[in-house]
Amino acid sequence: MRKKCLPIIVVLFGLFVCIWCNDGLCASDRVALVIGNKDYHDAPLQNPVNDANDLSDALDQLGFDVIKRINVTHREMERSLREFKQKITPNGVALFYYSGHGVQINGRNYLLPVGQTIYGPEEIRFKSVQADFVLAKMESAGSKVNIVILDACRNNPSKGLKGAGQGLAAMDAEGAFIAYSTGPGRFALDNARERNGLYTKNLLKTLQTPGLTIEELFRRVRYNVTKESDKQQIPWTASGLYGEKPFYFIPPTRQKEEAEHEINARLKQYKEEYELQLRRLEAEKARQEKKLSQLLQKKTKIGKYIDNHDGTITDTKTGLMWKRCSEGLSGKNCEKGEVKEYTWNDAVKRFKKVSYAGYDDWRMPTIDELETLVYCSKGVKNKKIGLCNDGSTKPTINQQAFPNTTWRYWSGSPSANYSDYAWYVYFSIGSSFANDRFNVSAVRLVRGGQ
Question: Do 217 and 344 have their domain in common?
């Protein structure tokens, strides 16, 4: 069996104070996703990791909630964009920065992850992230100001992309501000002798200047890069921002009295919201403690499990709470109905967040979590892969705790090696395998952990 570590979840309650606002946008309303990719197989780059680290620090000082990702794969890029979207607040500020390889195919821009081999232009949309997809994520989140900064116009990184256009293509900037490290169809300099790329180096310097509108700031970056590169690299911008007032990374200096009044008003607002939330949490805590007290009086121990007598089972070793019955079954001993089987893709969509027994956070288990249910009554034949000895009771699970268990159960874990496969546990022998996502298996839901 693989060694498993149980995560410890700590919930912190704090008071967040907004130091200054700009056009109604506070520091707490600012979210940034910063990506730096340098470790490409065919054409590694010098600066992107430093660029991403330094810009993340700068944006953090400017009040952005920064999500930083370094040397990310295709899947990690898409997962980061989903996390980014979830953090964006309606009418807030969303900033996306990318440093790495990017190419244009048929007038569309693609940002290249690491760890991919692209054999031809026809593969690009399946193995990279389209820049328009980033904008779509930001727009769908309802942010007021969308900013995209692409330091990605390096030389062609792959022999399989000989048909790619030079540099990046101009994009539709309606409702957004898009900054390119160089003009459409041109290459940017990697600046290998210095810590940062030429464009990001000048962006970092200029970001610290108070009172510059976003247009003025990037105009200054363009001037400095153009001068330093002797016109070999001329940055480009496209702006379609709405709103009567300009956007500032650092707004102009205000009168002390006006600033203090605004801070005090914000402090009062956040204090009232904090106290209200605290009262709600205390009331919820009392309700949960009462519910827990009632449940403890009903519980029955079954080996390492506790039957909560509400259709759920708690694992005393892992702390995980499981649905006693497989999906499709019900009744005190799961005797009613039939076990339902799903393809992995259908199961993932269906069981993202399920309500049951007073909880609304039921989900599919990870492969590590699902493997904890395996019980070999005659011991383990192969500790490395977790195969039960011959003669073990089948299915290989505590059948008193989980009656009418069938043979195969999906986990929510995709295979890291094969994009069309996902992990499941085969309870007929007590081991786990990667299987084609289009095959069908049963599902048992869990909550807690992670």
Answer: no
**Mean pLDDT, rounded, for 179-199:** 83
Single out the residue of 110, 84, 108, 112 nearest to residue 100, CA to CA: 112
3-state helix, strand, coil in the chain (%, to 5): 30, 25, 45
294 CB-near residues (< 8 Å, 6+ apart): none
Locus of tokens 């106290």: 275
Question: Residue 278 domain-assigned?
Answer: no
Residue 270 domain-assigned (yes or no): no
The answer to whether residues 109 and 131 touch, using CB atoms and an 8 Å cutoff, is: yes
Q: Does any domain span residue 277?
A: no
Judge whether 361 and 445 are in contact, CB under 8 Å.
Answer: no
Residue 152's pLDDT is 84
For residue 215, give every residue at least 6 positions away whose Cβ sits within 8 Å of its Cβ, in sequence order, or none: 177, 237, 239, 246
Q: How many helices (H) and strands (E) does the chain have?
A: 9, 27
Q: How many whole angstroms separate alpha carbon 10 and alpha carbon 8?
A: 7
At residue 9, the pLDDT reads 27
Q: How far apart are CA 225 and CA 71, in angstroms?
A: 26
Of the three residues 239, 270, 300, the one that is the final residue of a domain is 239
Q: How many domains does the chain have?
A: 2
Query: Which residues make Cβ contacts (< 8 Å) with residue 429, sequence separation at least 6?
Result: 387, 388, 396
pLDDT at 11 over 70: no
Q: List strand residue ranges (DSSP E) for 316-402, in order.
A: 321-323, 329-330, 336-337, 342-343, 354-356, 359-362, 380-382, 387-388
pLDDT at 183: 83
Q: Angle CA(54)–CA(58)–CA(64) in degrees, nearest 5? A: 125
One domain, residues 103 and 190: yes
Contacts of 11 (CB under 8 A, 6+ apart): none
Q: Band of the pLDDT at 405, cuts 50, 70, 90?
A: very high
What are the phi and psi torsion angles at 247 (to 5°)?
A: -100, 135
Place of tokens 């195919």: 105
pTM of the model: 0.52
Task: Indicate the average pLDDT of the chain.
Answer: 85
Domain range for 194 is 21-239
What's the CA gap between 54 and 61, in Å, rounded?
A: 11
